[in-house]
Amino acid sequence: MTTDTQAMMARRARLMGPNVSTFYEDPVHVVKGSGVWLWDDSGKMYLDCYNNVPHVGHCNPRVTAAITAQAGTLNTHTRYLHDGILDYIERLTDTMPPPLSTAILTCTGSEANDIALRMAEARSGHRGIIATDATYHGNTALVSQLSRSNVPGVGFGLDQYFRFVAAPDSYRTPDPDAAHFIADLEAKITELEASPHGFAALVVCPYFLNEGFPDLPDGWLKPVAARVHAAGGLLICDEVQSGFGRTGTHFWAHEKMGVTPDIVVLGKPMANGHPVGAVVTDPGTMAAFRTQFRYFNTFGGNPVSCAAAMAVLEELQGNDLMAHAARVGTYALERMGALQDKYEVIGDVRGSGLVFGAEMVLDRDTKAPATAFTDHVVNALRHRGILLSKLGRHKNTLKIRPPMPFSIANADQLFDALDAVLAETPVPT
What we know:
The structure is a single chain. By secondary structure, the chain is of the alpha/beta class. The protein has 2 domains: about 5-60 and about 320-425, Aspartate Aminotransferase, domain 1 (Alpha-Beta Complex); about 60-320, Aspartate Aminotransferase, domain 2, CATH 3.40.640.10. It contains 12 helices and 16 strands. The strands form 4 sheets. Strands 4-10-9-8-7-5-6 form a 7-stranded mixed β-sheet, sandwiched between helices. It has a 4-stranded mixed β-sheet with strand order 1-2-3-14. Strand 1 and strand 2 (about 35-40) form a beta hairpin. The radius of gyration is 21 Å and the shape is globular.
């Protein structure tokens, strides 16, 4: 770590407080971005294989122009009438199946998930929420209770309303028909129904990204949704990471998993870095929420945010980036498969479209997680100009989730670098 980096870290601690997260043992001081590239303060160039926030590429010209034009014309809140928010909601909900036709725009996915939980209470009359035990959905006081990776130290007693089921793990405990997941879910539903809270909703990322994006067959969530609805609950799908064409096969991961959720939550990639989130639902659920909660968000749905979000949809659809994600993702899986044949430390390879990765193990027979090794690989790649991360229950799965313009040539650069790092890094015994 350079002297300049140490000074900036000290300044962050002084001005922002302790324990503010950074990536990598030697944090990167980024100053510029374009497409799939980032530059640090020394001029070093990095291939961004991780950030889904600049969904259509860092500093995308179409999005930048839309923000600039609207900011130079008008920006205000939604208590004034404006076409921008209406045009965007129509365009957004046209990508989803009926009856998902209404939306609330927010500034973050955390806010959107917070609303989704309150919508579930308004529609079901209950407060009991079920999530997986290896996920993350945001950081409001209510939504932070969903996280098992960053368990809040205090929470105003809100933890009483939450129960957790084991996240699917296709590598260690295959569950292709969701039978084990449903059995666990039923037990938690029964537990909530016996409590004063009742059962309101199941909240999942439909592609289970934070859980390590297990290799589940298309349609896997369909019997899960049936059980949720039979119990009078709602299915909330958090598409903050998995949506907007990222999987390559479908625009939304809930389509891939065979369900139409009652509520869809959106966030990070919606406006390419401009702070936009959303909750999409059916008219009945929206009416129940609007009747029981007087909700207003000063910045949510402002004209500049809506212009940025509309530009992202136009870029995705105009350039058919979902089909591009499918092509590059197929090639990436082939390259990772070849590395798996070469290196025993790669226990499993999986993914779809532009979300893919490799799970590292100390032994293929025992499947013991190579957590520290994976951390070393991530940091070694950072020094070779490749930015990615790790995730999953054991933090031993490489998380590769680049901006959507990421190309086959970019994939070659990534896997050539990964090959070199694996060749020079001894596996602990």
